[in-house]
């Protein structure tokens, strides 16, 4: 069964409450009908109810049974303002500023997740990645034992011999502009855990560079080398290796030449990029040139799942990201 089919079934088995703060956005409204009708989650739209229902009518969309919350009318608004103020007052937050900030749907939705009125959040059809991440980083924060929030893409090229039958996880392509070696190690470990827990594959993690096993000397290579050592030390149960060039990581014949003793080289199914420029360019190259389906960017490392959409997304993409968020929420609720 395809990965997404498996995840859809998993989402239906234990439905999660997923808040969509861009409640009056057309693709979001269309996706919400599908999520509700197929029983993939309990979607919650944030926004002005009349405006949302009017738009749904124009689109021919039936939102029967979908919860719609207008922050201005919510009886939880004051609780959210107070909780946000309490958590940020040592950073200079005042009650007056909190009162303005929390009325913003993205902050309101994040507070719903924080105070357990929702299990996860999906947004980004209109807002930028930074708009979503900032409230997440300020309010939800990282899961216990996790030092850094990062992102991953599930890249799928049907028929390809690379990775896990054409599926690879890429990280970090959307959050950390220039991680230090400790952060890079944390990103590698988080992505390996995502491969195991969400994609149900045994990760083989390649730490990418322009050097393979000492073929070049540069401070940029040193960072990847140190991150590899640290990640191996922290998680001896995982197969992590580096530094590896991309071809040595995924092509068996190149690996046999350049890294013959590596258990990862030539067979990697998780690719860790050294910084955001490499990661972001890398995933877009594979998406465009190889025609890969790029699912994400999904966040990992938050205490509760919140996820971003590409502004170019369609309603199907929103449904899939809601499903992935719901499955992440199930895993977190089970802990
Ligand atoms: N993990 C955990 N905490 C973090 C992280 C992280 N990766 N980054 C920042 N924080 C924390 C900070 O410690 C701070 O906490 P505090 O306020 O409680 O002290 C809080 O988050 C806010 O930090 P700032 O430094 O104020 O936030 P910043 O302005 O750096 O924004 C952001 C962080 C939004 C992640 C920024 O790094 C960013 O814009 N990243 C790139 C996003 C992007 O443009 N991606 C490319 C497009 S996506 C695509 O193409 C698919």
Automatic annotation (TrEMBL):
Gene Ontology MF annotations: phosphate acetyltransferase activity
UniProt keywords, alphabetically: Acyltransferase, Transferase
Keyword Transferase: yes
InterPro entries in UniProt: P_Ac_Bu_trans, P_AcTrfase, P_AcTrfase_dom1, P_AcTrfase_dom2, Phos_Acetyltrans/Butyryltrans, PTA_PTB
Pfam families linked: PTA_PTB
Biological or metabolic pathway of the protein: Metabolic intermediate biosynthesis; acetyl-CoA biosynthesis; acetyl-CoA from acetate: step 2/2
Keyword Protease: no
SUPFAM superfamilies linked: Isocitrate/Isopropylmalate dehydrogenase-like
The Phosphate acetyl/butaryl transferase domain, residue ranges: 3-326
Record's catalysed reaction(s): acetyl-CoA + phosphate = acetyl phosphate + CoA
Listed EC numbers: 2.3.1.8
Enzyme class: transferase
UniProt record similarity statement: Belongs to the phosphate acetyltransferase and butyryltransferase family.
UniProt xrefs under PANTHER family: PHOSPHATE ACETYLTRANSFERASE (PTHR43356)
NCBIfam families per UniProt: PRK05632.1, PRK09653.1, pta
Listed name of the protein: Phosphate acetyltransferase
Organism: Clostridium saudiense
Gene behind the chain: pta
